[in-house]
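User: Some background: our group keeps a shared notebook of sequences we're curious about, and every so often someone picks one and asks for a predicted structure to add to the entry. Today it's my turn. The entry only has the sequence so far, pasted here. Could you supply the structure so I can complete it?
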Amino acid sequence: MFSRLLASFAAVCVLAGSVWSGSSILRRERSELEWEGPSRSLLSRLGDPHATRISARVGSVRLRRGESAFFEVCASDALEPKRWENALQFMVWRPKTRELMVRVPLDQAHLMAVKRRGDRACLPLGGGVIPADGAYAIEAVWASKRPPLALMRVAWTPRVLARRLLTWRDQVPVWLVALGVLLGVFALYRVGVHTTSDRPGRANPAYGALLMAVVTLGIAWLASRFAPFHGPTAGFIKGVALMLVEGGAAFVCAAWIVRRTSGGGVRSMLALALPRQRWLRSALWMLPLSITTGFVLSQVARVALNLIPATADAPIQSFVAWPSGTLSFAALGALLPVGEELFFRGLVYGALEQRSKVVAFLLSSSLFVVFHAHQVWGNWGAFVAITITGVMLTLLRARTGSTLVPVVVHIAYNLSLSNGAFGWS
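Assistant: Of course. Here's the predicted structure to add to the notebook entry:
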């Protein structure tokens, strides 16, 4: 009775945390600003109402108090130092109060920081936390003598990125999801089902069902990958849908295999049972040890990220570049391990271990890496980290005979990686 109540409460925590996370991601995504003004030359801007004898307004945008803003101007020119040094300077200020926020002269130091691509270049102006609501203007200012006509004809495009930084409060729904999953694991421990290793060795009927499950997951993955919906909120929804497909395919396929082979129950097939080791059969031992293992794995991943050079920005880096993406990544990090472990370490490993533990180990680990490779492609430190994690999670499944241990380790690993993005202010 207690285990059922605990499982019900765990399900409520997961559902409430998921809905809360989704609404928070959507609210943040809607509030984030990526603004780009019109591309015009300083010469053409001299006729605007805000232009003066020594300045031209490049752009103006309304920002809100507490946002973290970054300002940048891009030119249709390479901004070579020989042509542009000391020609003008850029200012970011609040016209209403005449409060100066940023001043960047085109001196040698700032021109060296310019990001160039062909005959175009972008000059970072910097930024900071917005002190008050209102309009903030980007002005090009020069000395009493106007820059040469060739420079005045260069087109400038203003860009502003603004977002509210994450705090520890934003992580509360994520931890609620994680708590729900851990309570669910604890409820399964209360039931006390032990692993079995005496399932018949007739593994041949498993191949067709296993192939169908992998194909189903592949189709779902491709559908989420190429769906015409993008952004952190869409990513969260697609991630939840993918988790449901993984878990559903694992249970349906396991039930089909069990019926064909008469090899125990579905829970035994997916290893939703206590570990073989007696000292791990207490959740009071298993949970802290698994959480510690996940934290250690996350530190190994950080070392790999720092030591192995990247050749390109991975898609996951672009996804978490904004706070809404980071929050989506953290929420999915608490949810997805359930579906992934049921599928890769539960179904794939469980369907093949009776025929060959080596094949089960290699295929389970390899499929895990394959389905994650697109997220980290180009960032080879992250690719190595994913590979090490997949191997270690499969090793834990093989050694303990339980999928519950990898679930907890996987969640602890994900939350440890995402925790650094949440400030404690």
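Suggested note for the entry: The longest helix spans residues 2-31. Confidence is low (pLDDT under 50) at residues 197-203.
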